[in-house]
Amino acid sequence: MTSNLITSPSDAREMIRQNNWPKPTSGLSNGFIQANLAVLPKELAFEFLLFCQRNPKPCPIIDITDPGSGIPALAAPDADLRTDIPKYRVYRNGELAEEKTDVSDIWDDNMVGFLLGCSFTFEEALLNNGIPIRHIEENCNVPMYKTNIECVKAGRFEGPMVVSMRPMSEKDAIRAVQVTSRFPSVHGAPVHIGNPASIGIYDIQNPDFGDRVTIKEGEVPVFWACGVTPQAIAMHVKPEIMITHAPGFMFITDIKNEQYAVI
Amino acid sequence: MTSNLITSPSDAREMIRQNNWPKPTSGLSNGFIQANLAVLPKELAFEFLLFCQRNPKPCPIIDITDPGSGIPALAAPDADLRTDIPKYRVYRNGELAEEKTDVSDIWDDNMVGFLLGCSFTFEEALLNNGIPIRHIEENCNVPMYKTNIECVKAGRFEGPMVVSMRPMSEKDAIRAVQVTSRFPSVHGAPVHIGNPASIGIYDIQNPDFGDRVTIKEGEVPVFWACGVTPQAIAMHVKPEIMITHAPGFMFITDIKNEQYAVI
Fold first, then answer.
1. Is A174 within 8 Å of chain B by CB?
2. Which of A53, A95, B28, B208 holds its CA 20 to 30 A away from the CA of B149?
3. Model's pTM, two decimal places?
4. Could you tell me if residue B1 is inside a domain?
């Protein structure tokens, strides 16, 4: 008999809050939206929100806290963004200063927390449609690349889009467009299919972030806007302080993936 | 021979800028997205953007200007929001102060312009699907009602959702859900079908805004979130200054309706 017990998001966050889940959140509370975290001082929040609004593919907003609050009122009203992520990174003036499991002590009245969609949701939809995902098969990180696609500038926030790549058959690529178009809040449809050079990627075997994966004969690389983009761009602004999740250690919301499908 | 010439958005805006179109924009540049305008001082802009983000059905964002700029860079980069609407309303401390055809003289460095989706786009989609629209047939304004549906609060912005109502056959109501779901950037799917009382509307023949329309035997009222909501709510905050379009005198973007369909 197969167990189909799934830890509820609320139980998962409680475990994380007690520091009893010191590892990546992939697979935890399967079927629920997991999100990237970016926390910025209020004086940068309007420009950053404008940037996300203008670049919804790399920066799909799931929720935003009131200034000073750690409560994501829409995504998980009983959660606290200051404690409910297993590992945080704290950047000061654009440099990684420390990693922590709780950021309550540095989250002051000035902080605004942004939850941004991540690719777990659309990857689950791809798998449900029988489309294999290479980096999951090869048990490594998705390969990510800087592109020559400029994001739309907003105030101090500007720079190139970062994309993730999943190789697949041409037939699967068409289905992948259909499947991921249903989820605009978690990056949505691909930004490019086919020739990496036309978006400024000259060595597909050398990703800028993550790991290289095998591209088989007859497969085409499919590129999606990546949630690393807003963090990379915010880092360039060198805010006095910025808090993010550590890669792979995501925030688990109360929202089911399917609730974010547009139709 | 029927003329199918359509004035381009750029030509339409030029005509408007020269004050040669002193009337509502419905039917002008057919097929292109028209938008509601709300202009607020920068110190309210973050809270208002947060409010729109949290209430995407009544407040679907099409574009936002940089502070001080009148250029909607995404929606119509060669346009100017200070001159390209046929009639503006200027509110001071929540009271209508004047109507103008040009607001260049009062649009200072502190102003942020918000373009919000309007129902023209989904009405065109309904008509294209053979669903008649009663207020168009009866040549009057769409009936609008305050509801008991509370918007999600953001800072000083809070209050009830305003909805518009279109009566139709039950069969058409199902198709209307499908058709309008494709357009989340212009209010999207209905918020309610059927019993007005369950959303706090006790006299369907007495709309709070707009005109009453005939509801025929066997028809069901279908309610959509309405772009009047953010203006009504902003007015409550009584900002020192707020500029809007006059009802029916919309901003015409360069974006085709179909480009805003999610799939």
1. no
2. A53
3. 0.90
4. no
